[in-house]
Amino acid sequence: MNANLNQTPLSTPNRPHRPGTSPILVAFLVFFGMSLAFSSVAMADRGTRKHCDNEPVAITAPDLTAQEWRRMDKPALIDKRTMRQRIKDMQQNVDELALLARNARHPRMRDALYRQVDAMQADLDQMRAELRRAERVKLDNSPPPRRPRYDKPVKPRRPEPASPQTFSSIYRTLDQTPFHDDRMETLESIARRQHFTTAQVSRIAKLFPFHDDRLAALKLLYTRTVDQENYHQLYALLPHRSDRRQLVHFTSAR
Q1: In the chain, where are the structural domains located?
Q2: Which one of 52, 94, 111, 229 has the fewest CB atoms closer than 10 angstroms to its CB?
């Protein structure tokens, strides 16, 4: 009888050994399953930052339409080979969890673990399908073209006044025009396409002997003068104070 008590019972060869599962282990497995189900989002986000945080890149996906781009809330870039390896590692974890579910002694625990395994397996299958449908994109790491920077605003180029030869021809044409009205019309026609200096305007204004015609010529040529800062030197060409006052008000308003 004592000999029988000291003997160690032998397990049956055909019966698999089923270790007991404690509630603490079940809670850990459920938490592990839930965290594993959401690990794909974190992995994809880390893969995106790995590719995009260093410097901006240009993305080209010719197979995607503009409407498909707008439907994307937050598109991410991942490497397919890296993602396939991660899915493979996650599948191994799911298989190990399924093995633990099959070895669970209590039916309720076994059913809860199987539900977690089914949900995780569905997520993995969806990830595989989305990875197969993912478009291949082209990345352009070349820096964008730099915009020209100007420390100071660019001043408009000052127009060139009439050359001495051109002004001599203009002066001769005006001098040879007999009537004052015709001379004014000729000056208006020339002023549309020529610019003058203050010295040249002074010579032209002296071709008009009447004070009202001279005042009209000075008003006409003010906007066509390249050195308007010296235009005050021409006030002396007007003999009447009222005419000089009119010219001062005219140039001040421009």
Answers
A1: 21-140, 164-253
A2: 229
Antiparallel, parallel or unpaired: β 138-140 and 58-60: antiparallel
Helix (H, G, I), strand (E, B) or coil at 47: helix
The phi and psi torsions of 193 (rounded to 5 degrees) equal -125, 5
**What pTM, to 2 d.p., does this model score?**
0.41
Dist CA 89 CA 72 (whole Å): 28
For residues 136 and 62, what is the distance between their CA atoms, to the nearest angstrom?
A: 9
Contact indicator for 74, 105 with CB cutoff of 8 Å: no
- Beta pairing partners, 60: 138
Question: What is the C-alpha separation between 38 and 123, in angstroms, rounded?
Answer: 9
Structure tokens at 32: 């592990």
> Structure tokens of 150?
């100007």
Count of CB atoms within 10 A of residue 79's CB?
A: 13
Tell which residue, 240, 184, 242, has the closest CA to residue 213: 184
Total Cβ atoms within 10 A of residue 153:
6
List pLDDT tens digits, range 223-244.
999 999 999 999 999 999 999 9
Residues present in the chain in total: 254
Provide the token pair at 144.
């964008």
Q: Quick one: CA torsion of 147, 143, 80, 37, rounded to 10 degrees?
A: -60
Q: Which residue has the tokens 């605003």?
A: 153
Closest of 69, 51, 42 to residue 127, by C-alpha: 42
Contacts of 180 (CB under 8 A, 6+ apart): 208, 210, 213
Lowest average pLDDT, out of 34-38, 101-105, 147-151, 241-245, goes to: 34-38
Return all residues near 9 (Cβ < 8 A) that are at least 6 apart: none
